[in-house]
Amino acid sequence: MKQSPALTQSTSELEHMENSLKQLNDNRFENVEIEEPVQKILDKLTKANFEAYIVGGCVRDLIMGREPHDWDITTNARPEDVLALFKKSKYENDFGTVLVPYRDKDKTQVVEVTTYRSEANYDDHRHPSEIKFEDKLEKDLSRRDFTINAMAMDKDGQIIDYYGGQEDIQQKIIRAVGDPLERFKEDALRLMRAVRFSATLGFTIEPQTKEAISKLAESITLVANERIRDELIKIIASPNPYEGMCQLHDTKLLQYILPELEAGYGIPQNRHHIYTIFDHSLLSLKYCPSKDYLVRLAALFHDIGKPQARKIINGQITFYNHEYISANLTKNIMTRLRFPKDDINRVTNLVRNHMFYYNVGEVTEASVRRLIAKTGEQNLADLIDLRIADRLGSGTAKAKPYKLRHLEYMFDKVRHDPISVKMLKINGTDLMKEFNLRPGPQIGALLDVLLANVINDPKLNEPSTLLAMAKPLLNLNLDELRQQAKNIIDEERQTEDRRIRRQHRV
Predict the structure, then answer these.
(1) Structure pTM?
(2) pLDDT for 282-323, tens place per residue?
(3) Do the bridges between strand 107-115 and strand 72-75 make them parallel or antiparallel, or are there none, so unpaired?
(4) Domains, the chain
(5) What secondary structure letter does DSSP report for 473?
(6) Which of 225, 266, 308, 314 has the fewest CB atoms within 10 Å, measured from its CB?
(7) Residue 383 near residue 354, CB atoms below 8 Å
């Protein structure tokens, strides 16, 4: 596979970032907007003669003009000092992190206030077995993963940046703090975090950092599957999921995280595909129109069973029943990564049904109803998005051809069942029970007449009103009434059908 291309971001996002970076002057960030509760915590710590800074991702986000999602504070105050200053705070760990609560609107939020610390002996490749509280900020920042996350900012906007994080933000680079091999040996999850930041921010990974990831890629197997799942979701849901997956492949992480996907690397397909199985899978993810990461995951996995299904028959490459193999592999992968059961069912359902057949003029309303029953009405839009991803990932120029638009029209027409007796608030059983009638054509005739009246006046569609209307009809010539009703219903159905056709341009 070719080296992954430069990552992309929207023009407005880049302009916002550039404008924020221009504010940097003498290492001070002007007009900084730290949330009021966080500012109050900083003020209280500094008034008590302690150092206090916001640190990590919130500083990075402020510099980039992004809204921080989490606020972390670092201080030389010891946990007992923080507990004494903030009476409702809690300290229930060995890492120097005190949880300080505050009210935000109608919810109680918390800010993590952590004492400067250094760490050593990462025996499980995730957590330090030795913690030492420090007096200097530099010691604390030196233990952090990447330069863009190793900056601190005081309450006045003064930035402390020992490792060139600001410059790396300007250059759009993910770089490990210090020796990348050491940083990744300390915490193997950082291997995936580097790729995740690359995908979410649109940055490239600095060469030495990337080389270290490749050298230590196998150590990702030491990380809990739930943590791998969380990082994978963030990559898939990012603005650059395709580039993120390319980075996982380039750094050799993918063979340990998703070996089933890696198995398609370099394997050609049949004459209908210009890409290998692997490239087609990643391109389908790239072009998936849905922002729902589960639909994107279905796009990535929809052909994951092709390497197992691949056979050569009469000189032609075939992949018969690959959708069922792909669905089983998808279920196994998502189970291994501890996805919730409902998410597993939803994705495997989409993968299993992505080969649905549809040709205008060949498929009946009944077969469309069967497809809806099979896949679930709530999954119809996702199934269309998956088909679009599959088409564009195959190199097809047109995302939604006429027959896909026609299928959407049929979905709308059938699932809403426009102008049908199903819209009535009584049914044939109600009529038979109320008037002691036997099953037969008379029941259908009565319902058609009632439907025609409801079309003219929807307020009549109440059970008691409909039964009262039906009673005098029992002794009338229902054939004539039924024909009058049919004329009204057919005219309304044609009007509704024209509206749905216009909506879907068919």
Answers:
(1) 0.78
(2) 999 999 999 999 999 999 999 999 999 888 888 888 888 899
(3) parallel
(4) 32-171 (3.30.460.10), 258-416 (1.10.3210), 423-504 (no CATH)
(5) G
(6) 314
(7) yes
